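User: Before I run my own analysis I want an independent prediction to cross-check against. Here's the chain; please return only the structure tokens and, at the end, one sentence I can use as a sanity check.
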Amino acid sequence: MSIWWSLHLRREAASVPLARRLLLGTMETAGVDPDISYDLSVALSEACANAVEHGGNTAHGDSRGAYHVTAYLDGEKCRIEVADFGPGFPAAPGAQEVQGDRGGQAVPEASRRPVPAAAVPHDAEHGRGLSLIEELADHVSIGNKPGLGGAVVSFDKILKWREDSLLQVS
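Assistant: Structure tokens:
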């Protein structure tokens, strides 16, 4: 079984629960174990909240903008990607220049990944979302989109199925 969907959402707080409910509904209908569904929905909420808060194209004065969410349930894995059109993650101090895939231009290595989430204090009110995503998912990729810019957070998790699942993978 394979299910995928993609959303183009406005950078508004109301879009976060919309994406989360769609994911939870899809996973419940497919028969995914509720604990796995919950973990992925929390990770998705964190990624969407980051896109809403930080994903505007500030260079062009875009205060609302949009972001994309794509989810794939394929076989035994769910993969989710959240991409925005903002400035992307800032380079860490002391970033080394390396050859990238932008037409041979040098791309700072640290521009592909934000400052480690572990550097955020556990009692901080902001900045723990990426760390939470890393704890809830099996594999996480965090970086900047080549070209026009923006951040991309993608993560996947091995699925477990309910005993009564109609769409269970054999």
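Sanity check: Residues 95-113 have pLDDT under 50 and may be disordered.
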